[in-house]
Write a structure and sequence with these properties.
heterodimer; A: about 270 residues; Glutaconate Coenzyme A-transferase; ten-stranded mixed beta sheet; 15 strands; B: Glutaconate Coenzyme A-transferase; eight-stranded mixed beta sheet; 14 strands; about 25% helix; globular
Chain lengths: ~270, ~250
């Protein structure tokens, strides 16, 4: 059964310098506050994996926690660029960032292979575009049955996957619903799994269409209400679209970004310790 | 009623969805046009977003492909591997609707990096997202993008999503199952691939000349048998403005 822990303890125990870390959540259920705790604990040299880096990876990258980013779409959705990610890729600030870049279909299948404990997955993708030439995790493969030329993508198996979910019970069984993303695949592909939740309930009531992660595939659960902000947890919080727009201004300038992170992440008054 | 060139572009894009059953929608201009189509030319259109929301019927325009509004109005929500493998790669999407940062004469698209020269590092764009497989697998692809020489370029810095490759037969050779781009809708007019797969200007919007479109294109744009686009109707404009005002 998963251990019930605090966010601080959970990150301290499960996320180590140099780890391959996936904080997943496709627009919905992004574990932002777990990312902030990783920043506060000054983790370094992480390989960050995420289909859509979003604000939380912009923050981790801008604070120098990552040396590599594995992703498929790195923008501020509906707003524009992730300025800290761009600065790291274009100018190496605050530290150089290597990227391994895929399409969404490729990344999703890499997690599927990881969860299936296969070395690679197969898809009809990448044919004729420039992505394969820039990545050592994409290769051409011939179908042994039909002779079709297909693409193979290497499995992703994170050292640790961090998710945010709506609910867990006291045995660490987790339930999440709404946009499901690649959460199940990212969890089952990983060696360790930390889940932050909106609520801990006495008894999980299974919902149609929801993902249930039994406590025996989860390493630890921490109660972190609002832990996805400015993303959201369906039926608990709403997406703060205004903050996504505001982030464009905060993150554009190195000084403004650093001041914001210092005030809101590194030294927030009475940060949930 | 008077209207802007962006409104004309969105209305023309929405009209292009007549007859489609399912549309895989990118965020931004494509999403605006697809949602306008649901209110005007194609009320039964099934909108599919890469977040796994199938049959979304938003009353307001989503800022992201994962807004709660899409989930709450969807027929069903599936996981991301499923939306790409079963629904898109499986050939269940009639139309894919894309934007572009750069596009070339064969409607190949770049959304990854742009070379700037002068020893400066390449400009980093958000990247591929769902676009490469939408361009590969959708029954056909519509592209909506503002017309300018910085966007319509002779040579892409990076091919993110394949349109017609380097010309006739390339899609078949690459094993791409869909027909590829059939229309590029801009704020000046509409371009369609000709016999050699190269984009040809086929429509100009009211008040626009072929010369303007040529000037806004970074290669020597071919001009076809030009037709004028019908101006937006009051109904189309009202629906579009209500949609944007509600957002």
């Amino acid at each position: 059964m998963a251990e019930l822990t605090t966010l601080r303890e959970g990150i301290a125990e499960l996320v180590r310098d140099g780890d391959t870390v996936a904080l997943e959540g496709f627009t919905h259920l992004i574990p932002t506050l777990a990312g902030h705790e990783i920043i506060r604990q000054r983790r370094r040299d992480l390989t960050l994996v995420r289909m859509t880096p979003d604000l939380v990876y912009d923050q981790l990258i801008g604070m120098g926690a990552a040396r590599k980013l594995v992703f498929s779409w790195g923008g501020n959705p509906g707003v524009g660029s992730l300025h800290r990610m761009r600065d790291a890729v274009e100018n190496g600030w605050p530290v150089p960032l290597v990227v391994d870049e895929h399409s969404h279909a490729g990344m999703a299948n890499r997690y599927v292979a990881g969860a299936s404990r296969l070395p690679f997955a197969v898809l009809r993708g990448y044919r004729g575009n420039d992505l394969a030439a820039r990545s050592d995790t994409i290769a051409s493969i011939t179908c042994p049955f039909t002779g079709d030329e297909l693409s193979a993508v290497r499995a992703i198996n994170p050292d640790v996957t961090v998710l945010h979910a709506q609910q867990a019970d006291r045995d660490g069984n987790v339930q999440l619903w709404g946009i499901l993303g690649v959460q199940k695949e990212a969890a089952l592909a990983a060696s360790r799994v930390l889940v932050t939740v909106e609520e801990i309930v006495d008894r999980l009531e299974p919902r149609p269409g929801a993902i249930q992660l039994p406590g025996w595939v989860v390493t630890a659960v921490a109660l972190v209400p609002g832990g996805a902000h400015p993303s959201y947890a369906l039926d608990y919080t709403t997406r703060d679209n205004a903050f996504y727009q505001e982030w464009d201004k905060i993150s554009r300038d190195r000084g403004t970004f650093t001041a914001w992170m210092t005030e809101h992440v590194l030294e927030p008054a009475g940060a949930g310790r | 009623m008077s209207w802007t060139t962006d409104e004309m572009m969105t209305v023309a894009a929405a009209r292009s969805l007549v007859g489609a059953t399912t549309c895989f929608v990118g965020i931004g201009l494509p999403s605006t046009a697809a949602n306008l189509a649901r209110r005007t030319s194609n009320p039964g259109l099934v909108l599919i977003y890469e977040s796994g929301t199938i049959g979304a019927k938003p009353d307001v325009l989503p800022l992201s492909i994962g807004d709660g509004e899409l989930v709450e109005t969807a027929d069903t929500v599936v996981a991301v591997p499923e939306i790409f493998n079963y629904w898109l790669q499986g050939g269940r999407c009639d139309v894919g609707f894309l934007g572009a940062a750069q596009i070339d004469r064969y409607a190949n698209i770049n959304t990854t990096t742009i070379d700037r020269g002068d020893g400066r590092p390449p400009l980093r764009l958000p990247g591929a997202g769902g676009a490469p497989e939408i361009a590969a697998h959708a029954g056909k692809v519509l592209i909506v993008v503002r017309h300018s020489p910085r966007v319509f370029v002779e040579r892409l810095s990076f091919i993110t999503s394949v349109g017609h490759g380097r010309g006739p037969g390339d899609r078949e050779k690459l094993g791409l199952i869909g027909k590829g781009p059939t229309k590029v809708i801009t704020d000046l007019g509409i371009l369609e691939p000709g016999d050699g797969c190269e984009l040809v200007l086929t429509h100009v919007h009211p008040g626009v000349t072929a010369e303007q479109a040529k000037e806004a294109t970074g290669w020597d744009l071919q001009i076809g048998d030009l037709q004028p686009t019908d101006a937006p109707t009051p109904e189309e404009l009202n629906e579009l403005r209500e949609l944007i005002a509600a957002t």
